[in-house]
């Protein structure tokens, strides 16, 4: 019975050591994950101006920064071109809508033609047939 108790005590001590080791590894992994989240936020917004990777050379860092700058400039030019095209389409749509509304207004304002008496007689006769 004493040997079982000693063996149980040894297992508990071993499990406690393993638990402490797992906790320290989990804390380390959490810190790394937080650091990566910070990097991902800066990289996702396109402003990777901080130098996170200290193991790369200054020239390599500046080269990467210039490449990102060129990509952002190209994207900006594309967006400006798209904006110009959409502005043109919007003006064309507004002009077309204005033309349609002017025609509608002239139709709405135009007086209705007065029917000649014989047309009124035809309308009365056909209404009496129903």
Any overview of this molecule?
The chain is mainly α and 130 residues long. It folds into two domains: 1-50; 53-110. The chain has three helices and no strands. The longest helix is centred in the middle third of the chain and has 52 residues, at 58-109. The protein is elongated. The chain starts with a helix and ends with a helix. The mean pLDDT is 81. It holds the Pfam family SIKE. InterPro entries: SIKE. Belongs to the SIKE family.
Which key phrases capture this entry?
130 residues, mainly alpha, 3 helices, 0% strand, SIKE, coiled coil
Share of residues in strands? under 5%
Helical run tally: 3
Residue windows where pLDDT falls under 50 for at least 5 positions: none
Q: What is the N-to-C order of secondary-structure elements (H for helix, E for strand)?
A: HHH
Structural domain count: 2
Integer average pLDDT: 81
Task: State the share of residues found in helices, binned by percent.
Answer: over 70%
C-alpha end-to-end distance = 112 Å
- Return the structural class: mainly alpha
Indicate the overall shape: elongated
| Estimated radius of gyration | 40 Å
- The beta-strand count equals 0
Characterize the main sheet. none
Q: What's the arrangement of secondary structure elements?
A:
Elements: H1 2-44, H2 58-109, H3 117-129
Pfam families: SIKE (PF05769)
Coiled coil: 58-103
Keywords: Coiled coil
